[in-house]
Design goal:
The chain is of the alpha/beta class. The protein contains 14 helices and 16 strands. Strands 2, 3, 4, 7, 9, 10, 11, 12, 14 and 15 form a 10-stranded mixed β-sheet that branches. Strands 1-6 form a two-stranded antiparallel sheet. A two-stranded parallel ribbon has the order 5-13.
Length: about 475
């Protein structure tokens, strides 16, 4: 009997794995996240506290983390609205085939790309809409006391990974109509009809999501990111690390042709160093004709690939990570735990709050004028102890101007001071240009590229890689 064509066998295996992952991630074990009343909750530079008494104590506990943290006390509902308003990118199925493969889903391998998309989405929300923006349809999406978002308030500070859970069907089947939500107040119901007052904001919101859609035409969609990943020796179905994704995002923003995106760029730190002159000159140039308006201003997203330890995360870096997430300039962290990538957006005590891309949803046609947005917003946060974090991650910061970049330098430098003198800072700011320090601007991409190593060397490099996630 003639042997089967290896390519055909690989395609068959790939189709089988795709089908299995679609089933595996179509149903999820949902953990009811537990929050403490006694500790502040930080979400991308905002501080929330659910304690009903002791406002002075609340304020001091929030402001102790960072000087520019915004305080929102005694309001779990505000935290809920803020969290759900962040853009959520997850596995998708049944989208057009990815270049160079027969894959029509990224289930099982695209989690780091999705985490990177979420960080970019938050950067774009910050750029176009500001940090105080919230999605007008948040009250419509999930009932206040639903099982999808229930603040299981506890007086203890134990790890919350082992709290109660429930097994739920796909979210597409669980979203409820506003008329079926008796728990909403009259004011909340009326707020859903104020779209005219914020129509421009909602158009921008919808535009940002469409840029991240799962179609070949989407500027920052999975198809475009896979295409750009070829420069790093990656292809559809491979696993991607946080550092590789940072460079892919840089290229994606650099190549964007939309007029609205000409005022924003991405800078990727080299060897854990942000070169101030490079950021100033290449990314924050001043306009020749006076002050630019909001649509013309030059802004930069600073991505810093770092490693927080050896095989396991160094606990000495815990306070530094928390300090970074408490800054209003922070747009999150592409990270995760071994074998899985998450998008970290905040923390409470020693637990990180994150958005999880490991959930397979049907593709949405973002070319439609009124495509549904619900599946792009996560109804419930998750928490994970800091000690379970994978050491490899990419930190994201956003500066809308040179003035705010200088503020970032000041604030982040304070945060980066390690409590132990034996530890190196996780990254640094350095005056001058990278070329002044004889750093090849392409060295990071070259060392990470799978094209540069082969055979035994490649297998060894993958095994010892200090920043890649393992394929699920």
């Amino acid at each position: 009997m003639k042997d089967s064509d290896p390519d055909e066998v690989d395609k068959l295996k790939m189709k089988f794995m795709s089908a299995w992952h679609n089933v595996k991630y179509g149903w999820v074990l949902r953990i009811k996240t537990k929050f403490s009343r006694n500790s502040p909750v930080f979400l991308l530079g905002k501080c929330y506290h659910f304690k009903s008494e002791g406002t002075d104590e609340t304020a001091s506990s929030c402001m102790g983390a960072a000087t520019n943290t915004k305080l929102v006390s005694n309001n779990a509902h505000q935290f809920r609205k803020d969290f759900i308003s962040r853009v959520w990118l997850t596995y998708r199925r049944e989208f057009p085939q990815l270049k160079g493969s027969s894959l029509t889903t990224d289930c099982g391998w695209g989690c780091t790309l999705r985490s990177g998309q979420m960080l970019l989405a938050q950067s774009l929300l910050l750029h176009f809409l500001g940090r105080d923006w919230v999605w007008t349809d948040v009250p419509q999406m999930v009932p206040m006391e639903s099982e999808f978002f229930k603040l299981n308030i506890s007086e203890s500070d134990d790890d919350d990974d082992d709290t109660g859970f429930t097994f739920l069907p796909p979210l597409e089947n669980s979203l409820q109509d506003i008329s079926q939500q008796p728990d909403l107040s009259i004011d909340e119901k009326l707020s859903l009809n104020t779209v005219d007052a914020t129509s421009e904001d909602e158009k921008l919101h919808r535009t940002i999501v469409s840029w991240l859609g799962d179609s070949p035409a989407a500027t920052f969609g999975i198809h475009r990111l896979i295409e750009l990943g070829e420069n790093s020796g990656k292809r559809a179905g491979d696993w991607y690390g946080p550092s590789v994704v940072a460079h892919i995002l840089r290229r994606a923003v650099e190549d964007a042709v939309e007029p609205e995106l000409q005022g924003i760029t991405v800078y990727v730190a080299q060897d854990c160093t942000v070169y101030i002159a490079d950021v100033m000159e290449k990314h924050l140039q001043t306009h020749e004709h006076g002050m630019p308006n909001s649509s013309e201003r030059n802004a930069v997203v600073i991505l810093i690939p770092v490693r927080l330890g050896g095989e396991k995360v160094n606990p000495e870096y815990k306070e530094i990570v928390k300090g970074v997430l408490s800054l209003e300039f922070c747009v999150g962290i592409i990270g995760g735990k071994p074998k899985q990538s998450f998008y970290f957006v905040g923390f409470q005590d020693d637990s990180l709050i994150y958005m999880d891309p490991h959930y397979c949803q049907s593709v949405v046609d973002v070319s439609l004028e009124d495509f549904p947005l619900e599946s792009y917003h996560c109804p419930s946060p998750k928490k994970m102890p800091f000690g379970k974090m994978d050491p490899s991650c990419t930190i994201g910061l956003y500066a809308s101007s040179q003035y705010y970049f200088e503020q970032i330098i000041d604030e982040v430098t304070k945060v980066l001071i390690s409590p132990s003198k034996d530890n190196y800072p996780i990254f640094t700011f350095s005056k001058g240009h990278a070329k002044d320090y004889e750093v090849d601007k392409h060295c990071t991409m070259k060392t990470e590229s799978a094209v540069q190593v082969s055979g035994t060397r490649r297998r060894k490099a993958e095994r010892l890689s200090n920043e890649e996630f393992v394929l699920l």
